[in-house]
């Protein structure tokens, strides 16, 4: 029997999250991990703390089978770490899974089986949920200028950009925290763009897949809990989203669109810095000053 799914998760100084994620996976997929239907590849992204020792001890203590811990010498970001893990994958499909998740059902295996039955699908995303069970937006629309404007005025929270479909359907892109992709397609795409350190790398990968004619779908019948930004801070996320949106536009869109994006991002940053000064909100001031540096 061929291995079906290689699950890849990254660890960076968050061994407690990774051990919990590993335990939840083993709780649901013990049989599949032991009979080589599924494998789990944990990439330590050059943590530099005691993560490797903690994770290695956990694997040995619990006698986990089908779990491999591999060490990345340098932390070059989420995409680079995932690419490194993918070079070790034996499965037909690669599932990128955030380490700040807990798996609550067999949905991940069902996603692989669904793709087995639907050769037209190259990438399949699934529901991520908050720890209270409410849905997180797990699929989105590509960031055209119209959609960037909606993002900047806060319309994302109302479902204008990101959403969690209730049925299986084709979408523009799916979140990298729970993304299943055919290994052969991932190789043809040459993996995630390693110039993107973190955030938007999932959208950019799906955009390139779209340009190559591949189909991306969303599969709702999976139950995965996710601690949003469990591995980073909100300021880090905002600054990197600014930086990476600009990179995406420089790479994929016209020069005029790129210049207009810079203008929109600058206006948003300056406005929020000004509001921060009025409200004596150091978070707004510090965050958007850092974002402004990227423009």
CATH architecture of the largest domain: Alpha-Beta Complex
Low-confidence stretches: none
Q: What is the end-to-end distance?
A: 51 Å
Helix and strand sequence: EHEHEHEEHEEEEHEEEEHHEEHHH
Q: Radius of gyration, rounded?
A: 19 Å
Oligomeric grouping of the chains: single chain
Mean pLDDT level? 95
| CATH homologous superfamily classification of the largest domain | Spore Coat Polysaccharide Biosynthesis Protein SpsA, Chain A
Mass-distribution shape: globular
Global structural class? alpha/beta
Number of helices: 10
Q: How large a portion of the residues is in β-strands, by DSSP E?
A: 15-25%
What is the CATH C-level name of the largest domain? Alpha Beta
Walk across the major sheet and give the strand order.
3-2-1-4-13-6-14-11
What does this structure look like?
By secondary structure, the protein is of the alpha/beta class. The protein has two domains: 5-226, Spore Coat Polysaccharide Biosynthesis Protein SpsA, Chain A (Alpha-Beta Complex), CATH 3.90.550; 234-293, no CATH class. 45% of the residues lie in helices and 20% in strands. The chain has ten helices and 15 strands. The protein has helices spanning 15-34, 51-62, 78-86, 107-117, 145-152, 183-188, 201-211, 234-252, 255-279, 282-293; strands at 5-11, 38-45, 67-72, 93-97, 101-103, 121-126, 128-129, 135-136, 139-140, 162-163, 169-170, 173-174, 178-182, 215-219, 224-226. The strands form four sheets. Strands 3-2-1-4-13-6-14-11 form an eight-stranded mixed β-sheet, with helices on both faces. β1, α1 and β2 form a beta-alpha-beta unit. The longest helix has 25 residues, at 255-279. It is globular. The relative contact order is 0.13.
């Amino acid at each position: 029997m061929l291995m079906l799914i290689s699950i890849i998760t990254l660890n960076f100084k968050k061994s407690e999250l990774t051990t919990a994620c590993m335990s939840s996976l083993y709780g649901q997929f013990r049989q599949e991990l032991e009979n080589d239907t599924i494998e789990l590849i944990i990439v330590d992204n050059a943590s530099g703390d005691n993560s490797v020792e903690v994770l290695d001890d956990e694997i040995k203590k619990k006698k986990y089978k089908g779990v491999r811990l591999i060490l990345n010498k340098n932390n070059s970001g989420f995409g680079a770490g995932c690419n490194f893990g993918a070079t070790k994958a034996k499965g037909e499909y690669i599932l990128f899974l955030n380490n700040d998740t807990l798996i609550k059902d067999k949905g991940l295996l069902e996603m692989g089986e669904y793709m087995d039955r639907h050769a037209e699908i190259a990438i399949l995303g699934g529901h991520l949920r908050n720890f209270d069970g409410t849905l997180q937006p797990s699929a989105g629309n590509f960031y055209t200028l119209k959609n960037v404007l909606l993002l900047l005025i806060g319309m994302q929270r109302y479902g204008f950009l990101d959403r969690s479909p209730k049925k299986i359907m084709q979408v523009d892109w799916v979140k990298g925290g729970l993304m299943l992709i055919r290994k052969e397609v991932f190789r043809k795409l040459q993996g995630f763009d390693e110039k993107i350190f973190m955030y938007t790398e999932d959208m950019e990968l799906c955009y390139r897949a779209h340009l190559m004619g591949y189909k991306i779908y969303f599969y709702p019948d999976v139950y995965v809990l996710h601690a949003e930004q469990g591995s980073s801070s909100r300021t880090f996320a905002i600054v990197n989203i600014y930086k990476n949106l600009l990179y995406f536009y420089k790479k994929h869109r016209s020069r005029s669109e790129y210049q207009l994006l810079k203008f929109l991002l600058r206006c948003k940053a300056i406005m929020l810095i000004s509001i921060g000064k009025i409200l004596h909100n150091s978070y707004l001031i510090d965050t958007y000053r850092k974002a402004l540096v990227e423009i």
